[in-house]
Amino acid sequence: MALISPSRRLRRTPFSEGVEAAGVKAYTVYNHMLLPTVFRSVQEDYRHLKTAVQVWDVACERQVELRGPDAARLMQMLTPRDLRAMLPGQCYYVPIVDETGGMLNDPVAVKLAEDRWWISIADSDLLYWVKGVVQGWRLDVLVDEPDVSPLAVQGPKAEDLLARVFGDAVRDVRFFRFGLFDFQGRSLVVARSGYSKQGGFEIYVEGGDIGMPLWNALMEAGRDLDVWAGCPNLIERIEGGLLSYGNDMTDDNTPHECGLGKFCDTQTAIGCIGRDALLRVAKEGPVQQIRPIAIEGPALPPCDRWWPVLAKGKRVGRVSSAAASPDFDTNVAIGMVRMTHWDPGTELEVDAGEGLRKAVVQPKFWI
Amino acid sequence: MALISPSRRLRRTPFSEGVEAAGVKAYTVYNHMLLPTVFRSVQEDYRHLKTAVQVWDVACERQVELRGPDAARLMQMLTPRDLRAMLPGQCYYVPIVDETGGMLNDPVAVKLAEDRWWISIADSDLLYWVKGVVQGWRLDVLVDEPDVSPLAVQGPKAEDLLARVFGDAVRDVRFFRFGLFDFQGRSLVVARSGYSKQGGFEIYVEGGDIGMPLWNALMEAGRDLDVWAGCPNLIERIEGGLLSYGNDMTDDNTPHECGLGKFCDTQTAIGCIGRDALLRVAKEGPVQQIRPIAIEGPALPPCDRWWPVLAKGKRVGRVSSAAASPDFDTNVAIGMVRMTHWDPGTELEVDAGEGLRKAVVQPKFWI
């Protein structure tokens, strides 16, 4: 494995000091920002995430803020999910599509008010698409990247930890809802959400200056809960079927191919830029789709490129994420498979660059 | 220094095999793609670049292709540089600005034909801005990222090496012009350009399948020229005043602040989206600007964040790139300095996190 070269362009976060002090071993780059990937080891981090509580520097989930009279109209232009019933205080997972229905990002939209939204983005410069659309349509809305850095608290003991720092009222926050909670005189958005299946919260830290104070307060309060610094865990997120934009899907894929049809209301999402393009696929369904795939044999090499998925020597898909799962005693993987071969139980072969492996389409993700 | 975690999202290039075989030691991430930063050491790579010839995997300079009747109109909408006199076969360095005059990218535009352009981009998803603008304005133009990966050949012996592979006609290609040259039956755009001051070319490799054949042909043909695998060199590019988007400037900066006023013809660039916003700054000039800065003392730590530039304890700017220069026996740096303190010879102080250093504004970049 190679080193990562430091530069200002790979932005540090308000929590970088804490991450470094905790002994981060590796990073990826996400929205031009450092995202930790390993602390002790991917396997140790995995086990700990499932049993205790971790604090994650996910500042790289940058926000695109929409503010002004056209904010809600603009938000609906961006996604085929019908937003009419969405209330302030709610978070929606929203596929963002271009005029061809191709996915540009798969963020969480946070509705702060009718005329103020945050879009908490995956790894692409969604700000550029939104600004371009606003410019072309001359919308009356301000779009920018505010000084807001999410800090995630994930794991079975996350609620206990957060209650110690923000008070017991945080326990009442429902899934994909948020409340405003005080920390050192600042009112912060705290949502029950996060990129794991172990439960937890994301704190939208507004103002980089309170990043380390909050990090330290969480570490201090969680000492007897065995709190660690952590990060999104490759194994756990594959087990949980949490997709990664740029890995598992790109702008070539529709939301339906990604199994995100349940987040699309294409018929009623009036105003969505990709609506025309998606109406047909919404009705007829896609010809390929994301599937959980178990790959047999010993632990695979890192999945750093799409691995061909074959059936009788013919290419029928690709694997985009894979890892050896300690809990399920197999290589868990996410792939895109053609409809001819996507039924659960279908036996396939995967070419991970070291000979073909037997693989089986699973009925559902592991957790 | 930490490791970089492999994933499909950090895309490999058509030349990655060659880069790995050459013993790459470190990477950065650029346009969601791996960009090598060190082979032997930054200092050894530097010396070699100035004396011999290197082959650089700069596939991360992705292309935004514009094709169709509105392509030229669109290109002019994107930049304050007047493109009316530009001919097919020319390359222009073009600041790209938004409606506020803030820089979104600083690419090279390659005019293939009146209705077909490549924009060879720096590190931001310019494709998203361009697609948004096209969508909003309903322009009649196709915009996408083609399978084109630049391979740079840089250094004093670059022309000799290229002549061996493409024939002597390549010697006639003038600076920032390109010609079409044959390789294994494919016609490739070969431009005299590149991200160094040592001279050289960029080959726009169309079709990933010929990436490694071309890489190998160059390595083979250049054996007695002491050809190496190389990469943009931090020291050399600072000495040469080659700016890096995301390091030295962001969307907060106008082209004029970046010293790129000579590439702006704001008065006559009719149609440019940022024209209104830039007219005033084009006339009056900016209040801060990029400057070469020499920083005294021993070699500095890596510049992984903006370092404050101070005058009598007051902040008057920032340093965004810095490295110890063997040839100039000082730390060479690029900074943004307020007009009150930007005159050559002005003595300043730089806070690189380890005590204040004396620094002096230079009359020009070093090479």
UniProtKB/TrEMBL annotation, chains A, B:
Domain GCVT N-terminal: 20-267
Native organism: Albidovulum aquaemixtae
Domain Aminomethyltransferase C-terminal: residue ranges: 306-363
Broad EC category: transferase
Family matches, as Pfam families: GCV_T, GCV_T_C
Protein known as: Dimethylsulfonioproprionate demethylase DmdA
Keywords: Methyltransferase, Transferase
Annotated NCBIfam families: PRK12486.1
Molecular function via GO: methyltransferase activity
EC numbers on record: 2.1.1.269
